[in-house]
Structure formats: structure tokens, C-alpha cells
Amino acid sequence: MTGSQSNQRLDIWLVENRFFKSRNSAANAIQSSGIIVNGKIEKKISKKIALGDRVEIKKNYKVYVSRSASKLKYLLEKTHKNISNYVCLDLGASTGGFTQVLLEFGSKKVYAIDVGSNQLDSLIRENSKVINMEKMDVRDLDKDLISSADLISVDLSFISLAKALNDILIYSKKGSYFYILFKPQFEVGINEVNKKGIVKNSQLTWNSINKFILLLKLRNFSEIKIFKSPLLGKDGNEEWLIFAEKE
């Protein structure tokens, strides 16, 4: 498709030509290699689009409400677990990228939990299988709700996982799956990141991962698997994906 506007940033062009509802959604698609400009995949959000440029969505590209959705999808595909008809808790749901993927993989109910409000995309919020639990700190979750979940996905920011998840790890039921996005910048301490939020020393990242893995083992988790995220975090940090099953 060619648009009527010229010399616009690609993300703005995509919204104004009604490919996406928001610049955030457009940016997610661009960074996930979902947009083709003049026959080539374009991953630069600020790419200028001229009159006559041909812009299209990559064939069979799945449009997600957040960039992080691709990270959870990658982990689910790596672990080969069947989660059909699962009851899930999505901790740190934000716009609902993880929730969207959980539904795509067959979950029957997802509690979308976030300390913020008015973030969940309407596409997710209006799904009858989604229970929107906004303004909810994960540390205040009811024990019965925790123990009812077959699967718990985690995408938290500005707090260490050990602090946020301790009770959840304790009260989760036997056989439950955890799918965790590990963000080292929130684990190593504020003095160990530079002004751009990047972790200064990769060894500190591994120390923090090993510390968290030890906590999982102490809380009776097994079959622990770690994968490097296929996408960097928004600030440019390498992120890691962790799977674990409660014994």
C-alpha cells in the first residue's frame, strides 16, 4: 500500500494510514520484523517514508499488542508445553502482550494483573476469557488465587523478582508452570547500571540469575530452563527467559 503522506516516520505513517491504532503497536511490529518497505524488512522506527514507497505488513505476521509478546511466545515454543484450558496469572500485564499469547496457546482464563491502570489494550480487555485486575500489587494477591493457577507468567519492572515473587513461589500449586522474563537491570542494584540503564558488567547479570535460580530451587522448582531473549529490552539490555515447574 502507498500512502498520501510523505517524509513521515514509519511508525507515524502506519498509524495515519490505519495499519495500527497506536504508534506503540506500530513500533512493536517494526522491531519484530513485521513491516516491509519497498520489498525489504524495515526495522528502523524513524525510517522516513516518501510518496511512492510501498509499505506492507509481512504475510502471516501476527499483530501483538506489545513487543514483549514475542518473548513469551518464544519461550512457550522452546519448552513445548501444552497449556490448553489452563488458568493463568499474568503478572505485570501492562498492555496485555503476554495475556494475548497465553490465549493464543489455548488458555481458558487469564487474570491480567498490574499495579497500573488503564493500560490493557481494548482487544485484550474485551475478551471474555480475561479478568482485568489493575491497581493490584502482585505481593498482595490472595493465596487462593495463586494456588488456583496452572501457569504464572511474569514481566515485572522496577522491582527484583525475589522481592516480588516470594509468596507466589511459596503458594503456587504443585505442577504449575512459571514463565519468567528476567530483567537484570532491576536485579543487580542501581549502582551497577549506567546512565542509560544498561548493566555495566555481564558477570553481575549471571550472578543475579544464579541467585534467582537458587531461590527457585529452594522453593521446590525443577526442570528449570534458561534462554536468551530473542529481543533486547527497550533500554537495550539483554534479557533472559526462565521456565520452571513447581514440584
Task: Walk me through what this model shows.
The chain has 247 residues and is α/β, with parallel strands linked by helices. It folds into two domains: 8-57, Structural Genomics Hypothetical 15.5 Kd Protein In mrcA-pckA Intergenic Region, Chain A (Roll); 69-246, Rossmann fold, CATH 3.40.50. It is 30% helix and 21% strand. It has helices at residues 10-16, 23-31, 69-79, 97-104, 122-125, 143-148, 161-171, 202-218, and strands spanning 8-9, 35-37, 40-41, 48-49, 55-57, 87-91, 109-114, 130-134, 151-154, 177-182, 221-228, 240-246. The strands form three sheets. A seven-stranded mixed β-sheet has the order 8-7-6-9-10-12-11, with helices on both faces. It has a three-stranded antiparallel β-sheet with strand order 3-2-5, with no helix packed on it. A two-stranded antiparallel ribbon has the order 1-4. α4 links the parallel β6 (87-91) and β7. α1 (10-16) crosses α2 and α3 runs parallel beside α4. The longest helix has 17 residues, at 202-218. The radius of gyration is 19 Å and the shape is globular.
Helix and strand layout, with pairings?
Layout: E1 8-9, H1 10-16, H2 23-31, E2 35-37, E3 40-41, E4 48-49, E5 55-57, H3 69-79, E6 87-91, H4 97-104, E7 109-114, H5 122-125, E8 130-134, H6 143-148, E9 151-154, H7 161-171, E10 177-182, H8 202-218, E11 221-228, E12 240-246
Give the mean pLDDT.
Answer: 90
CATH superfamily of the largest domain: Vaccinia Virus protein VP39
Question: What's the β-strand tally?
Answer: 12
* Uncertain regions spanning at least 5 consecutive residues: none
CATH class of the largest domain: Alpha Beta
For the CA atoms, what is the radius of gyration? Answer: 19 Å
Strand line-up in the sheet with most strands: 8-7-6-9-10-12-11
CATH topology of the largest domain: Rossmann fold
Q: What does the largest sheet look like?
A: 7 strands, mixed
CATH architecture of the largest domain: 3-Layer(aba) Sandwich
User: Looking at the structure, what is the overall shape?
Assistant: globular
Total of DSSP H or I helical runs spanning 4+ residues: 8
What's the helical proportion of residues? 25-40%
Topology as a string of helices (H) and strands (E): EHHEEEEHEHEHEHEHEHEE
Q: What share of the residues does DSSP label as strand, in percent?
A: 15-25%
Total count of domains: 2
Structural class: alpha/beta
User: What's the end-to-end separation, in Å?
Assistant: 52 Å
